[in-house]
């Protein structure tokens, strides 16, 4: 609860920094505030308030707190990484404020209980991101990315709202707990427009997390946006949208999984195939990471499909989102520094192992983690997801996931091979800001630590 | 029944409006018209919410409409700002010109 207030307060503070001339102190204040928010989450974790607040609008139970923690940890590293980029821009504090407001929306999504807060959380998170995606004003690519993101985002919101309206028509309520009660009482005989509403909400949420066949905007938007914003979109936004999906489908509509499970299985299968095979042929690293994020989406959706409301599946998705977010932050930080001159192709990584041995090693660990190779956290992330799927009737999907993961290994290793076995014209090290080095090394260390000790995360929901 | 008209009619009308909006977003090439179509989609939702709200005799649906209106206004404000930025760069608002992002 307190974390939501702290983050939105920081956003307002960052906005007035320009007027009251304390621009220089915004960065330390934001980092301090984020640490404060993390501490408050830790305190609330000890005594979780599982009762809803504000007329049943939000509830900060342990599920919400755990995911808020993942989002805030990612945001903490992201701010250290992005500080360097922001300094090159003329209006630093506006960007900071926009990111903080997007973060507020993300935290709201972890804790929503009413459809109103779901809708507002998504919009509070998305609208600042439209602006941020288009924030390189003079570059047409960035404008185009912002525009496409806006159109696709509002289009998806339209579907989400139509779904909410239909569900309201059937149940007479926006409260997800009351909708669950309604489903439990109706014993399967719900009006057909209720089912249409659920499917429309599923489509809208798949747009938001960019699952195929609703993924077509993602590669363009990821490529056109400034790299730091792409990092934000593929980590924090994804985690927040996922917790929203979990709460909506596993908890809210869990009782009628027969209706949406089939649709979701097709979406997952398409995402796995399209994302992995498209990523394999990309030469632009940002675009490749965009497709890789679509395939990770498919993996996370598998937990929703399994639809077993146990602590194991909650910790599987928690672990996955943390492992994926940290790996992505490391990868995007290295990419940002390597592509400073504008070349984002795989060839720009040639010979990085000779030029920057430490950072190349960190990048290699991040790639191994995203590919799911043992001893990194990515392996256990995939392992936990697969174990939740074992008991279900979707074993064909499991086989498909393993096969497409093998394709995934191919394109992640393309980057590692470029770094270690190819030579570049210059042996000059790529310039990295100290802050960026710290981010890359720290995220890599955490990736390895939670890879060695997965109990650290899975133990949170062990009782 | 609301004023002697069955609720199904209201649902059909909003569905038609919504589909016109959705098809418009996908088919039209002028950015302003695309924005108008998105507004049409959102207003179809508003109509649906208000009619259900009257049917259930429950004000929550109408309150939700206010949220949608406020958010739609914010979205269009951002959208038009991005659009004017695009116009400054290419002197056009045709979406066919926005296809530079490819591998």
Notes on the protein architecture:
The complex is a heterodimer of chains A (463) and B (103). With 463 residues, chain A is mostly helical. Chain A has one domain. Helices cover 77% and strands 0% of the residues of chain A. Chain A has 19 helices and no strands. The mean pLDDT of chain A is 88. With 103 residues, chain B is mostly helical. Helices cover 76% and strands 0% of the residues of chain B. Chain B contains three helices and no strands. The chains are: A mainly alpha (463), B mainly alpha (103). The interface between A and B is large, with 45 and 42 residues.
Shape of chain B: elongated
Radius of gyration of chain A: 21 Å
CATH fold type of chain B: Helix Hairpins
The portion of residues assigned to helices of chain A is: over 70%
Q: Secondary-structure element order of chain B, as H and E?
A: HHH
Oligomer: heterodimer
Helices and strands in order, then pairings?
The complex is a heterodimer of chains A (463) and B (103).
Chain A: H1 2-20, H2 26-46, H3 62-88, H4 92-111, H5 115-133, H6 140-171, H7 176-186, H8 192-208, H9 217-224, H10 227-252, H11 257-280, H12 285-306, H13 311-338, H14 352-355, H15 357-371, H16 377-390, H17 395-421, H18 434-452, H19 455-458
Chain B: H1 7-27, H2 31-56, H3 60-90
Helix pairs in contact in B: 1-2, 2-3
